[in-house]
């Protein structure tokens, strides 16, 4: 029961039905266009991209959700009828506000994050850069190709991956981070273990990227808060080994949104301010194909959390479910298509294996499209 049914609004009564609803509502910007060229749009997260409408979503009794599209030109009247003036003003403030710099990067632009897996068993490139020298060379090449961030990981989180000791993970990533950070590059450490976070930060990592949203290790929140570093909070249902067994949601988009909001608020209580937080909806982590596609179609809803958005779709299995003949390294087309979709929804960072091709695709998309 996770699909969002879009209502066909045939009469004023249909619109009033949403206005009279007394439960929580969710707001996804849509109708994207270049804000600088259209006075009837509002800026999305302080960028040139604008939105001309809101998709207003509510949960349905018994499961699932339904929505309506409301053009901004009709928003004022609906807001007055709904009695949600303060709520809508707060939502619009979060959707429009320019995001502060994140790890020194301007969040009005879309940045490419290059993946460096120092592992023998990652799902797509395990063993390709399994030595320090190979991984460092790969990172330097990615920066030349246009990567703004290098995401270094020493543990595979694919379903069924072998467990790795924290010391082994440290041994894999620290030399790579130390060399790349010494070059002046922005490095994120992809780990769910507090001890690895500490070692990586000492080696020069600028960002903590945790697939468990700082929940996988009881010390993770404390370490992240004390570090003063920016954090990336991802949604994952279950554990890596079993997450794809039978993932279930009432409504995937709204459930992920609520989870990430809760994690942001937990971080704030622990001393991690919102301007240090980036969120990631976790494509492929405890989600079916339909869950992933629903999330990809409504990525812009996550701008309502007031944080930069990281999207990771590169070579993932949902592409293989759409094109069953494509092995991981044959999924470049799907990876680029989903990256451009993320750019269209205003995401600020895209995590990829194929940096040069993605940078080129985003450059062409931004040069040839008003959205």
From TrEMBL:
GO MF, any single term: dihydropteroate synthase activity
Catalytic activity: (7,8-dihydropterin-6-yl)methyl diphosphate + 4-aminobenzoate = 7,8-dihydropteroate + diphosphate
GO cellular component, one term: cytosol
Enzyme superclass (EC): transferase
Pfam families: Pterin_bind (PF00809)
Coiled coil regions, renumbered to chain: none
Keywords: Folate biosynthesis, Magnesium, Metal-binding, Transferase
Known cofactor(s): Mg(2+)
Pathways per UniProt: Cofactor biosynthesis; tetrahydrofolate biosynthesis; 7,8-dihydrofolate from 2-amino-4-hydroxy-6-hydroxymethyl-7,8-dihydropteridine diphosphate and 4-aminobenzoate: step 1/2
Domain Pterin-binding: from-to ranges: 110-363
Record-stated family: Belongs to the DHPS family.
Name assigned to this protein: Dihydropteroate synthase
Organism: Thalassospira profundimaris
């Amino acid at each position: 029961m996770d699909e969002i049914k879009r209502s066909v609004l045939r009469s004023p009564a249909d619109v009033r039905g949403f206005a009279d609803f007394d439960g929580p509502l969710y707001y996804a910007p849509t109708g994207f266009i270049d804000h600088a060229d259209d006075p009837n749009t509002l800026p999305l997260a302080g960028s040139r991209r604008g939105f001309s409408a809101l998709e207003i979503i509510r949960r349905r009794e018994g499961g699932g959700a339904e929505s309506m599209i409301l053009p901004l030109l009709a928003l004022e009247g609906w807001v007055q009828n709904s009695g949600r003036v303060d709520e809508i003003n707060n939502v619009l403030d979060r959707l429009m506000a320019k995001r502060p710099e994140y790890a020194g990067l301007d969040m009005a632009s879309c940045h490419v994050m290059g993946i460096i897996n120092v592992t023998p068993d990652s799902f797509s490139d395990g063993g390709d850069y399994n030595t320090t020298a190979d991984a460092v060379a790969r990172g330097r090449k990615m920066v030349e190709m246009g990567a703004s961030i290098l995401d270094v990981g020493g543990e595979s989180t694919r379903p069924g991956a072998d467990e790795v000791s924290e010391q082994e993970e440290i041994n894999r990533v620290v030399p790579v981070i130390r060399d790349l950070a010494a070059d002046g590059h922005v490095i994120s450490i992809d780990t769910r273990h507090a001890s690895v976070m500490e070692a990586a930060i000492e080696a020069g990592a600028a960002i903590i990227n945790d697939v468990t949203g700082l929940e996988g290790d009881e010390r993770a929140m404390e370490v992240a808060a004390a570090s003063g570093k920016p954090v990336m909070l991802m949604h994952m249902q279950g554990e890596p080994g079993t997450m794809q067994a039978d993932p279930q949601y009432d409504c995937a988009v709204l459930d992920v949104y609520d989870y990430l909001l809760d994690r942001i608020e937990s971080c704030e209580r622990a001393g991690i301010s919102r301007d240090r937080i980036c969120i990631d909806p976790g494509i492929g982590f405890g989600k079916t194909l339909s869950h992933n596609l629903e999330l990809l179609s409504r990525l812009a809803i996550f701008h309502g959390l007031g944080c930069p958005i990281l999207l990771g779709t590169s070579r993932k299995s949902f592409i293989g479910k759409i094109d069953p003949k494509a092995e991981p390294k044959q999924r470049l087309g799907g990876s680029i298509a989903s990256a451009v979709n993320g750019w269209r929804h205003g995401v600020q960072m895209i995590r990829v294996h194929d940096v040069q091709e993605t940078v080129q695709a985003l450059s062409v998309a931004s040069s040839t499209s008003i959205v």
